Amino acid sequence: MAAIDEAVVLPHDAHPIADYAKYYSQGPDNDIVAVFILPDLLAQKANQVCDRMKDDLARSSRVRCVADGVPLINAGERFWLEDWQKLPWIFDPKCGDISVVFDRDNSQFKEVRCTGKGAPT
């Protein structure tokens, strides 16, 4: 997790990396999937319903924004989730959360983007 934090280049409209709480998990295809999210945004959404990514990472369904068992952590902290589908996807249009997919086999980023915005950056 620390190596990803150090190597990632955030989108130009993102907040500084230190502002985000970072949730990581083992995703499909041996990838590390992470969500970097502003803690205040996550706290606001904790009891609301949001879109959640499905297994193919291309579709979503409506579920609680913060799944049971997912702690609210502070900016700069990291948390590993055993089930990547419990990652707290919010889809904030102001880059309050960032989707990160790291290809462990090739040691490169597949995706780093603000989830509420357009194409990956």
From TrEMBL:
It comes from the Bacteria. This is Uncharacterized protein. It comes from Novosphingobium resinovorum.
